[in-house]
Specification:
Shape: elongated
CATH topology of one domain: Chitinase A, domain 3
Largest sheet: 6 strands, mixed
Distance between the termini: 27 Å
Low-confidence stretches: 4-44
Number of helices: 3
């Protein structure tokens, strides 16, 4: 049975030179009922044979699923041709994957959007041949050249617009993706970031919000120029992202300063001896204590709880930033990484984005014949 959406866990991917920083912003409702006192004494068990299918119901269904060429890819029947035998599938009527049926109906699963959509309004005992379900309402469309992903979310200052400008088949995996277990050779989806414009303010350095301005752009590149805010050149708190782990690092509070000239910005950290900082070394966050400062380095130590011995580590005391920088706006994504971006970055920001590259039925138009066996009303979790 494959008609349900399953949650999948994935390790966080960090690719040097590619940093996507997106902020995700996340209702309560009250239902009043004048018969609430009487309802306290009613039988709370959902009742079958009551009306038509609505959102929030649970439904027992027999079905046959076919592809456009007539191939049966799934069925609840033992004999899909004669529609005999088998056990009805159990579906919970909801478009929200985070909405669940009550514990008594925990075996009822979510259906794909186009399947649920055509079940709504059907009656018990009714049979139907569904209209074809397009990929974007099934298991996701496969991107093609010219497709645009438009990411709209109230937490974003501007919409993000990504256009597929090329698809390269059977090519070598780029070096930056080595070590992640991706297929090699691979398909590369070439995506252009169409979001930017001359004069746009951007945040490349988290301590200096909107301090970089787009000064020029062409088909593949944008040029930016960074000017720190006047109140954040002395006694400010530097924030950076560790390129190996993706971890945000907050340096010592109000212990950084910046020297600015026409071409460079030099940031110097000056913590006190004995102050602590949390850093990720080999992916594990460790709290370090400052033990010494030189002109170029900050010497740190931490207490290894296992043997009680001190271990030492050092970081650069200064960071140099080039004020006039270039940024690529054309990216090459193997299918595995693009699917990660779509499902774990883009789709949570904008659920209308429905692309997929990791399901056997991705890009397929689906056809269903269904028979409604039984309807259970209002079985959602209260």
């Amino acid at each position: 049975m494959i008609l349900f959406n399953s949650d999948m866990q994935t390790e966080k991917l960090a690719v040097a030179g590619l940093v996507i920083i997106i902020v995700i912003a996340l209702s309560a409702y009250i239902i009043t009922n004048e018969d609430i006192i009487g309802n306290l004494f009613e039988d709370k068990e959902p009742k079958p044979n009551e009306g038509v299918i609505e959102l929030g119901d649970c439904v027992d269904i027999h079905y046959v699923g076919k592809l456009s060429d007539g191939e049966v890819f799934d069925s609840s029947y033992n004999d899909s041709e004669n529609k005999t035998g088998g056990t009805p599938a159990k579906f919970f009527m909801s478009y929200d994957e985070f909405e669940n049926p009550s514990d008594d109906y925990s075996q009822y699963m979510h259906g794909i959007e186009g399947f649920v959509e055509q079940l709504i309004g059907m009656s018990e005992g009714e049979s139907a041949i569904f209209d074809p379900i397009p990929p974007e309402k099934a298991y996701g469309a496969i991107p093609k050249i010219g497709d645009i992903i438009q990411i709209s979310n109230e937490s974003l200052e501007n919409d993000i617009k990504l256009e597929f400008i090329d698809i390269q088949e059977n090519v070598s995996l780029p070096e930056e993706y080595a070590g992640f277990g991706f297929a090699d050779p691979t398909t590369l989806y070439v995506v252009k970031d169409q979001t930017h414009f001359v004069g746009e303010k951007m945040t490349f350095h988290l301590a200096w919000e909107n301090s970089s301005v787009v000064t020029k752009m062409n088909d593949t590149t944008i040029w930016t120029y960074t000017t720190p805010p006047e109140d954040k050149t002395t006694d400010f708190t530097w924030i950076s992202i560790d390129p190996t782990t993706g971890q945000t690092i907050t340096y010592w509070e109000n212990k950084s300063s910046a020297e600015v000239n026409d071409t460079h910005i030099v940031i110097t950290h000056s913590p006190e001896i004995g102050e602590n900082i949390s850093l990720a070394v080999e992916y594990y966050p460790i709290t370090y204590t400052v033990v010494n400062l030189t002109e170029d380095k900050i010497n740190l130590s931490y207490d290894d709880d296992e043997d009680g011995n001190l271990s030492y580590y050092e970081i650069d005391r200064t960071i140099t930033i080039v004020r006039n920088e270039t940024q690529d706006i054309v990216f090459y994504f193997p299918p595995e990484f693009l699917d990660y971006l779509i499902n774990y970055i883009f789709n949570p920001l904008d659920p209308t984005i429905n692309y997929s590259l990791d399901h056997p039925l991705s890009g397929k138009e689906l056809y269903f014949e269904v028979e409604i066996v039984k309807i259970y009303k209002n079985c959602q979790e209260s």
